[in-house]
Amino acid sequence: MNTIEQIRRILHEVRTIAVVGLSAEWHRPSFFAAKYMQDHGYRIVPVNPRYATAATDVLGEHCYAALTDIPFPVDMVDVFRRTEDVLPIAQQAIQMGAKCLWQQIGVMNLEADALARNAGMDSVMDRCVKIEHGRFFGGLNLVGVNTGVISAKRFSNKA
Amino acid sequence: MTDHVFQAETLAIHAGQVPDSATGARALPIYQTSSFVFDSADHAASLFNLQTFGNIYSRLSNPTVAALEERVAALEGGRAGLASASGMASEAMALMTLLQQGDHVVAAGALYGGSVTMLAVSLKRFGIETTFVDANDPLAFAAAMQPNTRAVFAESMGNPSLTVLDIAAVADVAHAHGVPLIVDNTVPSPFLCNPLRHGADIVVHSATKYLGGHGTTLAGVLVESGKFPWDNGKFPGMTEPSPSFHGVKFYETFGDFGFTMRARMEVLRVYGATLSPFSAWQILQGTESLHVRMERHCSNARKVAEFLKAHPLVSWVNYPGLPDHPQYDLVQKQMRQVDGAPGASGLMAFGVKGGLAAGVRFIEAAQFMSHLANIGDTRTLIIHPASTTHRQLDAEQQLSAGVLPDMVRLSVGIEHIDDILWDIDQALHASDRG
């Protein structure tokens, strides 16, 4: 389990997020999450072989077939794939020097988690990057979710 | 490394409100507005698509109301909360999110009269059947389950029967059939009992009672645990594309607060039983002192119960905090300790010697104990349920709800204990004079 402090720091440090398994369908959770993060100032790098050959962008960004095709560094690799598919993604994330491996809700590859941690990366499992951002920097509390935040400091929506 | 775990006393004051970014106001501002401006057309589209969190219109969400929702969710140890205009509205929101025509509910017989009416009369009109069972007997819940059962509904402490639900045992029955247990936790308040920690899946509250405490304001809150597996095949509304939101799947998209999101967006939004921001603010003024008040309610009630038990003009006393209550072991297991004894809340029932007529004389002779249809106020409240709160039920339903003809219900307040005992004693003597 990651602490509140760790997740706040990750969301503060990260600027570029490669979203593996990003759907171009507007009502899919991966699209929800990526659009939200893009709206909150993060650069989204779509990774999905389904759209990589097409001329159409996803969320206005070029879509790559694989993580290893991305020709520039990314800070976070956010995984919308089945648990059993995460290990090679974690290996690629380490190779390309990403700072954080983030497995979405329901995705919990313990081996990939350990691999990323041993390589000195931050690693988060079974959480949604959008929900965690909303939890600390605005919005999640507006729909009645128990954020766990107890603080007398003035609220800031800047990660 | 782990996060610090805050206690209920701290959550009652802080959860759900940090000073806002615009003003830094320490106390909770009242956002008395129907609507909220959009940053852009794209922002508006994202909000309506549920792709970003934010406010659109106060029928759906409002920052002041949200503070109450998060506070009660935190006090219950739940994942998320949804407030509505009354306790009955919150119960309706929970049931209407779960149920559709042809579904079946297993419910405790010893329920608040309004809840019985909702299930037995109102939801029945929409093709939803309810079987009422003995709340003391988890096996009775099991025996009533049907293939189309989609919810089990009970009170952690029956009002006014004071039946104590074996939450863990009834949760096991519900879960064995793949359905959630909904618990009305109004009487203990979240300070004394947290049903979600014993296996319940959804809690509903009349916040009008102990959460507010002042008796000025109506409100209700539902809280989900975030642990129920909605994808077990019995709840297509949670897993299939929503026709109200162009194909959003609530459980997949919002995960462990998917039930609350669906209740907000598909039920509260549509039926409009919204809580006003001013009412939410008033309830929260009371919630800040919930822990202090509940401790006093418990210690006063225990002394009142002992006093009544020894009184020559009282025929019987039903208070779960007395060691001879048949479910005292359950009370010890499920309720917080207050002053070295289980905190059994402030509600009790007793019989006045001389039956119905003497009971009515007792109520009319009270000096500062208020004769009214509410519980959980700072003031001591008394009522005769058979002729008031439960009069819409027939005699058999009254007995099933634990309402006897000679029963007086007492909601012990937080006035000085000597004064409460004085008023009870003088009213009992007046009842005896005929």
Secondary structure elements and their pairing?
The complex is a heterodimer of chains A (159) and B (434).
Chain A: H1 4-13, E1 16-20, H2 29-39, E2 43-47, H3 49-52, E3 76-79, H4 86-95, E4 100-103, H5 110-118, E5 122-124, H6 129-137
Parallel strand pairs in A: 1-2, 1-3, 3-4, 4-5
Helix pairs in contact in A: 2-6, 4-5
Chain B: H1 8-14, H2 41-48, H3 63-76, E1 80-84, H4 87-98, E2 104-108, H5 113-122, E3 129-133, H6 138-144, E4 149-155, H7 167-176, E5 181-184, H8 189-192, E6 202-206, E7 220-224, H9 236-239, H10 250-254, H11 258-271, H12 277-287, H13 290-309, E8 314-318, H14 328-334, E9 337-338, E10 341-342, E11 347-352, H15 355-365, E12 370-371, E13 381-383, H16 395-400, E14 407-411, H17 417-432
Parallel strand pairs in B: 2-3, 2-4, 4-5, 5-6, 12-13
Antiparallel strand pairs in B: 1-7, 6-7, 8-11, 9-10, 11-14, 13-14
Helix pairs in contact in B: 1-3, 3-12, 4-11, 6-7, 15-17
Explain what this protein looks like in three dimensions.
The complex is a heterodimer of chains A (159) and B (434). Chain A is an alpha/beta fold and 159 residues long. Helix content of chain A is 33%, strand content 13%. Chain A is built from six helices and five strands. Chain A has a five-stranded parallel β-sheet, sandwiched between helices. The relative contact order of chain A is 0.17. The mean pLDDT of chain A is 94. With 434 residues, chain B is of the alpha/beta class. Chain B folds into two domains: 280 residues, Aspartate Aminotransferase, domain 2 (3-Layer(aba) Sandwich); 143 residues, Aspartate Aminotransferase, domain 1, CATH 3.90.1150. In chain B, α6 runs parallel beside α7. Chains A and B meet through α1 and α2 of A and α1, α2, α3, β1 and α10 of B.
